[in-house]
Specification:
Number of strands: 11
CATH class of the largest domain: Alpha Beta
Strand order of the largest sheet: 3-2-1-4-5-7-6
CATH topology of the largest domain: Rossmann fold
Radius of gyration: 22 Å
Helix content: 25-40%
Shape: globular
Distance between the termini: 11 Å
Structural class: alpha/beta
Largest sheet: 7 strands, mixed
CATH superfamily of the largest domain: Vaccinia Virus protein VP39
Low-confidence stretches: 5-9
Number of helices: 12
Order of helices and strands: HEHEHEEHEHEEHHHHEEEEHHH
Number of domains: 2
Length: about 400
């Protein structure tokens, strides 16, 4: 087997293997930054249908990750995994890395180890929810990072809210691994950590400092960009609004302070937009379904539909009236930065929400790739001849 060092004398192409690929939004972000996904795997047939409706058939493998042999994976420069968040999410069971679904992280580790025997990917990227930071008091994240370090990867971690790019509040944890970097000088790490950066809030820098035994390679990054769009920019003008009685029912489920805000919006000569989630709250002395209105120009985090409670509602008000309806598939795509994603007319709304609600925001992936993986790739391989595989 070639050593990692000797492989630096052969330049791979910017190719990707995408595990837990979903509907391919990570692939879209990487593609925009110049990378090509040549292998994708996920077990959901619903997501496969959306994926193939946009990308066509070819590299998508419909199978459980536990059945994937790392030696089957073609040589790639980057391996990505958005492993299930169910057991580390604050809204989930909090069983952590030993939970039924989130434990599939260990299958990705196994596959990396098997790939390492022939063609270890120089770079890895993992994504999960913010709750991964606090799962089992941070112990789950420590265990996960330790496992990646044992495979030889030097790591960095980021916490990024998609609201820097799109009008959606969506905070996600990203783990970056570099097999070629080696352990970074402690002084250099501290200089980077002292740079105030929106991608590394105090919770991240504190975690890194308190786990100095892990192998870190931190990247000096620019501030996250300032979003240039708001909720009004994603609205589909062709979608029909609910009948008046259904919108009124939603209004009557609101707290008085939210109803007051609706009236303030109605008094304007133009349309304003907000989003609504229904949640069980104490209202009028009893626990009942309550419509909570958000009017800061961004949507709440898209989620996968469960029992209807996760369906986000769009509200517009102005010109003396208000209307409401569910966000549609096109609007979900725009909130994920996938404006041009192909959506077939045969797709059901729940299927589209299931796909987009469980995906990764496209411009966030593009930013990480442009700021980290492209420079790291060039630094490692720019002085050697390019080949298709290595």
């Amino acid at each position: 087997m070639q050593s990692v060092k000797s492989q630096q004398n052969i330049m791979p192409e910017k190719t990707v293997a995408d595990f837990f690929a979903g509907i391919g939004l990570v692939e879209l972000g990487l593609e925009k930054a110049g990378w090509s996904t040549i292998y994708s795997v996920d077990y959901s047939d619903e997501k496969r249908q959306l994926y193939e409706g946009h990308f066509g058939q070819g590299s998508y493998h419909l199978r459980d990750i536990s059945t994937v042999d790392g030696e089957e994976i073609p040589p790639v420069a980057l391996a990505h995994a958005s492993f299930p968040c169910t057991d580390v999410s604050v809204a989930g069971s909090r069983e952590g890395l030993s939970g039924k679904e989130t434990s599939s992280f260990w299958e990705f580790v196994r596959i990396l180890e098997e790939m390492k025997a022939k063609h270890p990917p120089p770079f890895i990227l993992l994504e999960n929810v913010e709750g991964m930071l606090t799962s089992k008091g941070g112990h789950d994240l420590e265990i996960a990072l330790s496992a990646l370090c044992e495979l030889g990867y030097a790591l960095d971690i980021l916490l990024i809210n998609a609201s820097h790019f799109v009008p959606q509040s969506r905070v996600r944890l990203f783990i970056i691994g570099n097999l070629l970097a080696g352990h970074q000088d402690i002084l250099e790490q501290e200089i980077i950590l002292q740079q105030k950066n929106t991608a590394r809030p105090p919770r991240i820098t504190n975690f890194i400092r308190s786990h100095s035994d892990l192998t870190w390679h931190l990247y000096s990054l620019p501030p996250l960009p300032r979003r240039s769009s708001d909720l009004a920019d994603i609205v589909d003008p062709n979608e029909e609004w609910w009948p008046e009685d259904r919108s009124s029912y939603l209004y009557n489920q609101m707290f008085e302070r939210h109803q007051k805000k609706v009236h303030e919006m109605m008094d304007q000569p133009f349309w304003s937009y907000g989003t609504v989630f229904r949640r069980m709250r104490m209202r009028n002395g009893k626990k009942q379904s309550t419509a909570e209105l958000r009017t800061d120009g961004i949507a709440g985090c898209l989620r996968t539909p469960k029992g209807g409670s996760a369906r986000q509602i769009l509200l517009r008000a102005g010109k003396g009236r208000y209307d409401a309806r569910l966000l549609n598939g096109r609007e979900n795509a725009r909130l994920m930065g996938a404006d041009d994603y192909v959506l077939g007319s045969h797709l059901e709304s729940n299927q589209m929400l299931f796909g987009f609600g469980d995906a990764v925001c496209v411009p966030v992936i593009e930013w990480i790739t442009e700021e980290i993986f492209n420079p790291a790739f060039d630094e490692a391989f720019s002085s050697v001849p390019a080949v298709t595989s290595y």
